[in-house]
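Memo to structure team: turn this sequence into structure tokens by end of day. - J.P.
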Amino acid sequence: MSNQSNSQHRSVIILGSGPAGYTAAIYAARANLQPLLIQGMQPGGQLTVTTEVDNFPGFEHGVQGPELMQKMQAQAERFNTTIVFDTIVKTELGQKPFLLVGDSGESYSCDALIIATGASARWLGIESEQRLSGFGVSACATCDGFFYKGREVAVVGGGDAAVEESLYLTNFCTKVYLIHRRDRLRAERIMQDRLLANPKIEMVWNATVDEILGDAAAGGVTGVRVRDVQNGTTREIAIHGLFVAIGHTPNTAIFGDQLEKDAMGYLITKPDSTATNIPGVFAAGDVQDRIFRQAITAAGSGCMAALEAERYLSGHEDSRK
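Reply from structure team:
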């Protein structure tokens, strides 16, 4: 059990520093809740590895992902949000106040907790993927597909996400290659039928990505080398963008079985709410949203979480005195 007397205590603690976390901090701070935001392992979240964000309202010429997150952080700090760089490794949510232990050794306690730890894209794990991330390699067609208007791209995967991304990209791209390691897709049959009937999509069956070709300094991705899993032969396909759609993993491991999760590990919230199964614990952003996964929807749910946390604390104010 953590020692509460050695903990930093706040009415509200926010875990995560993406659009959901910073928006929650802005609203909580403006409500005079003096929130503490713990940034986590990747301050700024997934947008820090995104080059240009063209679909966030208010930036008519687009904005760089890291710049957008810096602006959100500065806005949260303007309203006196305390921001600490730490990663929570243990949580105790079965008691009040909630107790958190950081990798730094610091302990924290709070009366209301907003979880905005996000989800991490699953990657292929090859060197060229990391080198060209943000320079033609992406995990979000909805975010980046527009940049490839009139060009040829490829998607890697075989489930619903890969099929959805491929179909979406046909709105902009002249051709979409869908690379799958097996000879059949895992996606819903109706989606498979739509995909296979689309003349812009070409299937690359029984293949894995051997290497992504291109140079970040010379314009980014120029092609992909795929390997046939049956005979080991390789071939190159000329493309301008590669979208990895092999799924996301919600960052929920630190909560164990304390919070209700769906089969994929995403936190379950009540309908039209960010409330979890534990009163006083709220979840916002990609950690509870496996469908939209957009910066603007994450920010919106961060706003909701802060408003709900304020309402929760107001209703329990007498019991905390």
